[in-house]
Amino acid sequence: MPSKILPHVMIETGRNPQHCIIWLHGLGADGHDFEPIVPQLGLDPSLPVRFVFPHAPAIPVTINGGYVMPAWYDIRQTDIGLAHDAQGIEASAKAIRLLVEQQHMQGIATRNIMLAGFSQGAAMALHIGLRMDQPLAGIIALSGYLLLPETLPDAIHPAARQTPVFMAHGIDDPVVPFALGDAAQRQLRSQGFQVEWHSYPMEHQVCMEEIRQLGCWIQEILSSPCNSSAST
Length: 232
Fold this sequence. Notes:
seven-stranded mixed beta sheet
């Protein structure tokens, strides 16, 4: 495995965690952005979890006048449903898959790893998780959308359909329109994925009700007998 791993923040909720959530931030943020969510999820302390919050590389972002900022890929126009940066997406996908492999090599089973993200990070979590050749514990996409959606039907790995998905979106989101999130969850369901979908009266943000429902979902998934401590 290449030695270059994305710099990241790591938080463990207890000793010897056998579950991991790799959480991807949004455009212009960094790995510290979602650190505060860990205690807010209300997870059972008897089931320790390792949270990994990677920092995206700093790149010029076209839609922001070429300003260099942390981003998983370039955004070239205001309609984020079009003209996706396939090269940048794939470069970040490779780097994030290395994090998954790193956690596996450190003893956490792939089926005990979740990919989570907000906005751009949510889009990346979906892009990678739907194409994995092994099922993950789950995919969490908050205020996200599908990247390169036209390629998805041919790109989905059959094993990925075993991965449960949690998606949530603000109805009044002016950054990632609600319609994009809704279309994504509909497409995933049509492709055979088990999707838990929530909408909230908010803009491009998260709210406590969303965090509470997400925490319950994570707890249920990680407590399942299918998510054992054995490596796979």
